[in-house]
Amino acid sequence: MNKGSKGLGLYDNLDLSASQNDQELLDVYKKWASIYDKDNDDLLGTVSQPNSVQIFHKYLSDKNQKIIDVGCGTGLVGVELSKLGYTNFDGIDISKEMIDIAIDRGYRSLFLGNLNDSLPLESNSYDAALCVGVFTHGHVGPSRLIELIRVIKPQGLLCFTVNEDVYESYGFDKVIKELEAKKVWKLLESCKQEYMTKKNVMGFYYVARII
Ligand SMILES: C[S@@+](CC[C@H](N)C(=O)[O-])C[C@H]1O[C@@H](n2cnc3c(N)ncnc32)[C@H](O)[C@@H]1O
Is the pLDDT reported for residue 177 higher than 80? Predict the structure, then answer.
């Protein structure tokens, strides 16, 4: 992508493959936060939030279960959770500017935290976790799936997406299979669906039961 192009500049700055570090990402999201939702719809046509929550919904019928939305950003997953009647969800993100926009979107608590480090969350403390749009270019790699698993109770659920562009190049394909083979989780659903419709990017969607 052309990093200098008009209008799409902030999004294009994300497309730096694996060389992106957390500080660079923080700078990008600091600038992007105020127009993220508009770009999500108008520029990218991102549908990963409703798609993920629709898939997740099939496996979590109790609307009061405790959920954490990791990489919650401006809270678009929270909006979808609320629409379906979920009432007990928290969010966590590395970017304060993104979280500031999520404040009115139904989250019980919002935390600052970095998935590339230890999240400031107790082990086995959530019934379910969602992580949407975070396993993508230069953000977080497959080795951090284990940190998501840490905060979920045994028999809890994890729903996450992987941008198709990084699925094999970052090794998600291998790690996802390994976690199944080692009986860390049981995959309940995996599918490839629309992700950013205006960019013709597909995403992999997963729901796993933690063992
Ligand atoms: C593409 S946005 C997705 C936001 C939201 N989940 C959604 O679907 O609209 C990626 C989000 O991941 C967050 N993020 C990136 N790296 C992170 C990390 N290491 N730990 C926690 N959050 C991170 C960003 O700040 C941003 O809010």
Answer: yes
Residue 189 lies in a domain: yes
Q: Which two tokens stand for residue 79?
A: 């909006």
State if pTM tops 0.85: yes
The answer to whether position 14 is within a domain reads: no
Give the residue from 66, 49, 135, 147 showing the smallest Cα distance to 107: 66
The H helix count followed by the E strand count for the chain is: 8, 7
Q: Where are the alpha helices (DSSP H) in 39-75?
A: 48-57
Which residue's C-alpha comes closest to atom 27 of ligand 1?
73
**98 found inside a domain:** yes
Whether the CB of 114 sits within 6 Å of ligand 1: yes
Q: What percent of the chain has pLDDT over 70?
A: 91
Per the structure, the complete domain to which residue 68 belongs is given by: 48-210
Overall number of domains in the chain = 1
25 lines ligand 1 (CB under 6 A): yes
Contact 165, 128 (CB under 8 A): no
Indicate which CATH number applies to the domain containing 94.
Answer: 3.40.50.150
